[in-house]
Design a protein that fits this description.
Number of helices: 11
Number of strands: 8
Length: 270
């Protein structure tokens, strides 16, 4: 690790506030990880008391990412990935999934969270044939995201943009759509978009999210099924379309849930 990287990691560690709940740490807690604190346990347990299915949602979202990236690196032949809203490392991160199928895959993770930055070294592993990088940048600034990603990715060649359970951090729907549009607009024909997020039509999740947003934590905004589907406008959806997460190319061990909590899809830029 360079001196500059060490300084940035030290500075980021100093910025971590363990007195308020933190969405990435709570998500890590729901997934069974260890990068969380008592305040996150309390917030996560309060959320789960209202919406017990949140643990399943966290796992289902992670599994959807795995199936989508496997498809993209395999059947779709993609060798470059831009993963926005990385979150904390867990098992089967994007680069591990992609390079399992395509050892020469190149993956750039994007997050502006100081806690994630302190764990960036766990993400910055790669096969000898491929590459992995971490960009400390804000989703609200897609131009900077793309400029920094270009250090590792060739943006003249197809790229798969992945955004999993992250668009709700953008309060305004029009702005969220514009950000995705700017990112996909800068990528060439043959690029892909893999996306999932939670619907506002599930009563327990909506109520748990409302209480969470009132707790002082950074708020998260749920959206209607039509709004989530709108993120794919202008793209060619891969079958089966925008569907409940476990309905997208399920495997033999994929659970079957009767409730629609989140929607996801994978689409190609024509």
């Amino acid at each position: 690790m360079t001196q500059d990287s060490l300084r940035r990691e030290t500075d980021s560690t100093a910025m971590i506030d363990t007195s308020v709940p933190h969405s990435a740490r709570i998500w890590n807690y729901w997934l069974g990880g260890k990068d969380n604190y008592p305040v996150d346990h309390a917030a996560g347990d309060a959320f789960r008391a209202v919406f017990p299915g949140i643990t399943d949602l966290a796992r289902d979202s992670r599994a959807f990412l795995g199936r989508a990236v496997t498809f993209l690196a395999g059947e779709a032949g993609i060798r470059q990935f831009l993963d926005i809203g990385t979150g904390l490392p867990t098992a089967d991160n994007t680069h591990e999934i992609a390079q399992r199928t395509a050892p020469d895959a190149r993956v750039v993770y994007v997050d502006n969270d100081p806690l994630v930055l302190t764990h960036a070294r766990a993400l910055l592993t790669s096969t000898p044939e491929g590459a992995t990088d971490y960009v400390d940048s804000d989703l609200h600034d897609p131009a900077t995201v793309l400029r920094q990603a270009a250090r590792t990715l060739d943006l003249s060649q197809p790229v798969a943009l992945t955004m999993m359970q992250v668009s709700g951090h953008i309060a305004d729907y029009a702005e969220a759509r514009a950000i995705v549009g700017a990112l996909m607009g800068a990528l060439p024909s043959g690029s892909w978009f893999a996306f999932n997020d939670s619907v506002d039509t599930h009563e327990a999740n909506a109520e748990a999210t409302r209480r969470y947003n009132e707790s002082g934590a950074v708020p998260y905004y749920l959206r209607s099924p039509a709004e989530l589907a709108g993120f794919f406008d202008g793209l060619e959806l891969q079958d089966p379309g925008v569907v409940p997460l476990n309905d997208w190319r399920p495997g033999p061990a994929t659970p079957v849930h009767g409730e629609v909590i989140a929607l996801g899809g994978v689409a190609r830029k024509p």
